[in-house]
Design goal:
The complex is a heterodimer of chains A (189) and B (384). By secondary structure, chain A is an alpha/beta fold. In chain A, 26% of the residues lie in helices and 22% in strands. Chain A has one domain (4-180): 2-Layer Sandwich (Beta Polymerase, domain 2), CATH 3.30.460. In chain A, a hairpin with a 2-residue loop joins strand 3 and strand 4 (62-70). Chain A starts with a helix and ends in an 8-residue tail after the last helix. With 384 residues, chain B is α+β, with helices and mostly antiparallel strands. Chain B has a domain at 70-309: Cytochrome-c3 Hydrogenase, chain B. In chain B, the strands form three sheets. Chain B has a three-stranded antiparallel β-sheet. In chain B, strands 6-7-8 form a three-stranded antiparallel β-sheet. In chain B, strands 4-5 form a two-stranded antiparallel ribbon. The radius of gyration of chain B is 21 Å and the shape is globular. Chain A binds chain B through residues 1, 24-26, 48-52, 54, 56, 64, 66, 68, 72, 75-76, 78, 80, 82, 117-119, 122, 130, 144-147, 154-155, 159, 189, and chain B through 22, 24, 39, 54-55, 58, 60, 62-63, 225-228, 230, 241, 246-247, 316-318, 320, 327, 329, 331, 333, 341-342, 344, 346, 350-351, 354, 382-384.
Chain lengths: 189, 384
């Protein structure tokens, strides 16, 4: 829900780039290039809490991203912002789980929102891991959940689990190997 | 800016030069109800850093739901939140209802509210029993499970299932409650209110428990806000935010929900907030009982009752429920077929788990699991 007075302020601050639907507490960003400006404006208006951020793969290199915000004082006020992102050229993204944030090719990165809302750091990590969208500026862009050995991004439409047909077998072999070696002290831990 | 947890570490650091140790706790550990690895860096007994390692329970739910119909998808989402699965059922049903513009009959809304609150108590009882174990007390788990069994019997009577009820469906609820259901629920409320007093007597005021929990694992309100805390964890830090009151759904708008808050955001406050919530849930349940009778419809007749044939128009929605752990949210993208195009679950436990580092820094290793227990983490919803 989005109270009318807040909707009015959002129209004032970001009206030229947002299609706002207060009844659904929903807004579509028409110019993705203005994302950071719009986000800063929304935070200034009082949307200081980022609750959720996720993506949807549309096919090819196109994605929709969704960010749900809540007002800091008006707890009844929420807003979900949607925008489109196109991965211009495939990022030189290291596989999820790498120790350090990998380097990405120029324009193919999405700006990180974690400097505006700290909570989005975790959300971006999740999106990076499942969709392969790199976020420039996220200081800790490593996978959260998936096995580091898994190749590809499971929530992309073109992901095929069949390409990992030997995955379970390899995993079992590795576990058996570990069992033979027993518990070892790992100085790199 | 120095964080308060960093200051805490500096103040409490032993001046003796002790070797820093890294402990790997889990993924299988008696204090962890579900698989998770915590990498703990400690200076002597002082915790300096805690890093959660996830993924031991990952089942690919968000990928699987896109290959299932909406009925099956609701079942899978419910399995991410196995202690209060009705919340997940409600989320899926509500998301579909919002996209399709379905109006749920009022009696069904009262019944949904009732079940959500029964689930809340069931979850908090499990948490209470587990927290006792984390603190080295064995009695809570036995008595909490005693009451929880009674509660699961009620839910089984209603839905036929003890855990994943699948009773809240798009357009209403699956079936009417049995004739004597209200009487059983009323009797449970009467019994359980007395048991809550008993818990308070032997545990809440226990000096050992207070020593273990007071001013331990403190979370400042600003930090909680910034890092996505919701639910009892946020409220214990003094912020009165509860979706049931602030963005009412089901019949909560008619119930004047009271939102208890804490003062210091420590383990004790999180404990007390959940206890007050159980009392509030009892009050809500009793208020619902007066409205669930009659023979009015329990489901919108226009909604296809066959989950396999249920199609959802093209649309996008974010909906959220105040689950026992905080804001459980669902983003649904539908494409006009009988399968979701995209479903994403916002898991409150994910954000609370990553608060653990801030909460534990500067406390002793012995405090780690008391703090962890106070957060009520559900790994199923984190790993998905």
């Amino acid at each position: 829900m989005l109270p009318e007075e807040l909707a009015g302020r959002i129209r004032e601050e970001c009206g030229d780039v947002l299609l706002l639907d207060p009844a659904r507490a929903w807004a579509i960003l028409t110019d993705s290039g203005r994302l950071l400006d719009v986000c800063r404006n929304l935070k200034n208006i009082g949307f200081i809490r980022a609750l959720n951020m996720t993506a949807n793969h549309l096919g090819g290199r196109d994605f929709h991203l969704y960010l749900t915000l809540r007002h800091g004082e008006r707890h009844d006020a929420s807003l979900t912002l949607k925008w489109k992102f196109t991965l211009l050229d495939e990022a030189i993204a290291g596989e999820p789980g790498e120790e350090s944030a990998p380097a990405y090719a120029g324009q193919s990165v999405h700006p990180s929102l974690s400097l505006i809302w700290r909570a989005t750091e975790l959300m971006e990590r999740e999106i990076f891991e499942f969709f392969g969208i790199p976020f420039a500026g996220n200081q800790n862009l490593v996978g959260l959940i998936l096995d580091p050995q898994l190749q590809g991004f499971p929530l992309r439409r073109d992901f095929r689990a069949a390409s990992h047909e030997n995955y379970a077998e390899k995993l079992l072999e590795e576990r058996a190997d570990r069992a033979v070696r027993g518990v070892m002290h790992d100085p790199q831990f | 800016m120095t964080r308060s947890s960093d200051r805490r570490v500096e103040i409490r650091r032993d001046p003796l030069l002790t070797e820093k140790l890294i402990y790997s706790v889990g993924p299988q550990h008696p204090s962890l109800p579900s698989p998770l690895e915590l990498r703990v860096q400690a200076d002597g007994e002082l915790i300096e850093r805690v890093t959660p390692e996830l993924g031991y329970m990952h089942r690919g739910v968000e990928q699987l739901v896109t290959q299932r119909n909406y009925g099956q998808a609701a079942g899978l989402i419910s399995r991410c939140e196995w202690l209060a699965g009705s919340n997940a059922d409600w989320l899926v049903a509500d998301a579909i209802e919002r996209i399709e513009g379905i109006t749920v009959p009022e009696r069904a809304q009262w019944l949904r509210t009732l079940v959500l609150e029964l689930s809340r108590i069931g979850n908090h009882l499990f948490w209470f029993g587990n927290l006792g174990l984390e603190a080295g007390a064995y009695t809570p788990i036995f008595i909490a499970m005693r009451e929880r069994e009674m509660l699961l019997d009620l839910l089984e009577m209603l839905s036929g299932h003890r855990h994943h009820h699948g009773w809240i469906v798009p357009g209403g609820v699956r079936n009417a409650p049995p004739e004597d259901f209200s009487g059983h629920v009323r009797a449970f409320c009467l019994w359980f209110r007395g048991r809550l007093d008993e818990y308070e007597d032997f545990f809440s005021d226990n000096a050992i428990w207070i020593n273990r929990s007071e001013l331990i694992g403190t979370l400042e309100a600003d930090y909680a806000f910034e890092y996505g805390a919701t639910g009892p964890v946020l409220r214990a830090s003094g912020i009165a935010h509860d979706l049931r009151r602030d963005q009412p759904y089901a019949m909560y708008g008619a119930l004047d929900v009271q939102v208890p808050t804490g003062e210091f955001g420590d383990v004790l406050d999180r404990y007390r907030v959940r206890f007050l919530e159980m009392r509030e849930s009892l009050r809500i349940i009793e208020a619902c009982l007066g409205n669930i009778g009659g023979d009015t419809p329990l489901r919108d007749p226009d909604v296809n009752p066959d989950p396999e044939a249920l199609t959802v128009s093209r649309g996008e929605v974010y909906t959220a429920v105040e689950s026992p752990r905080g804001e459980l949210g669902l983003t649904l993208v539908s494409d006009g077929t009988n399968r979701p195009s995209r479903m994403h679950l916002r898991a409150p436990s994910l954000y609370h788990l990553f608060l653990l580092d801030e909460l534990c820094r500067g406390y002793l290793l012995a405090d780690l699991f008391v703090i962890y227990g106070s957060l009520d983490i559900m790994i199923g919803e984190v790993d998905k």
